[in-house]
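Subject: design request, 241 residues
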């Protein structure tokens, strides 16, 4: 994140916490509108999803087990007196950190296979936004958007297999992410384009193949819309070659 964007983001966050409307605050900086919108959405999602009671309970259980195990081992050695014992605050901090890391990693891993409508699907979208925001070069940002489009294509296939209906919201998101990929890819240096071109082309082809796979089973009233979407997706693909 550039220094100017960092300062603007901090200023926007302060204004929003003072009670100002988020959209009005973002509109004051049109040159960073997309970045600010994504970053502020991430902050809002984190603030809503934090549940201190879960972490506190896990911390207490973990620390109780550590103390019990320490006492058990101490009792096995007659006359044992530890030369050095970590202060309780350090042990508690280490326990909380370990539990928090395991808890967050488990949530991230579990949310990876979710689809729209699942309980942890918003967490999956939040992680994707964080990944896009932390891609600081055009070519890396293009690849991050490309991974998002791949996820939407996989979700499209799962939703169709589960419900038998085509989710056009996911189709639109695939096309939207592909357009973001092209925007960022065209901003990259030529040497970086050559490195990422083959990977992005393969990903686009996989997304098109997924949409083509559900086309024969789609209801007649939805087929033309999907055909038009496939045409636009192939157009995006040809722009990369």
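Subject: RE: design request

Done. Sequence follows.
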């Amino acid at each position: 994140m550039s220094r100017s964007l960092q300062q603007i983001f901090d200023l926007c966050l302060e204004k929003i916490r003072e009670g100002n409307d988020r959209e009005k605050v973002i509109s004051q900086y049109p040159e960073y509108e997309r970045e600010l919108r994504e970053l502020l959405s991430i902050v809002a999602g984190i603030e809503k999803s934090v549940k201190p009671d879960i972490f506190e309970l896990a911390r207490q259980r973990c620390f109780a087990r550590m103390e019990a195990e320490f006492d058990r081992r101490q009792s096995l050695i007659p006359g044992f007196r530890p030369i050095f014992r970590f202060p309780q605050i350090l042990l508690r901090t280490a326990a909380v950190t370990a539990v928090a890391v395991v808890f967050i990693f488990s949530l991230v891993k579990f949310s990876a296979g979710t689809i729209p409508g699942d309980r942890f699907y918003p967490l999956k979208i939040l992680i994707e936004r964080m990944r896009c925001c932390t891609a600081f070069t055009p070519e890396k940002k293009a690849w991050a958007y490309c991974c998002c489009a791949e996820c939407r294509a996989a979700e499209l296939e799962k939703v169709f297999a589960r419900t038998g209906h085509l989710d056009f919201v996911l189709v639109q998101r695939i096309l939207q992410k592909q357009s973001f990929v092209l925007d960022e890819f065209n901003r990259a240096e030529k040497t970086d384009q050559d490195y990422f071109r083959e990977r992005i082309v393969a990903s686009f082809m996989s997304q098109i193949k997924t949409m083509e796979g559900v086309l024969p089973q789609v209801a007649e009233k939805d087929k033309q819309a999907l055909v038009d979407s496939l045409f636009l997706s192939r157009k995006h693909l040809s722009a990369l070659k």
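The mean pLDDT is 79.
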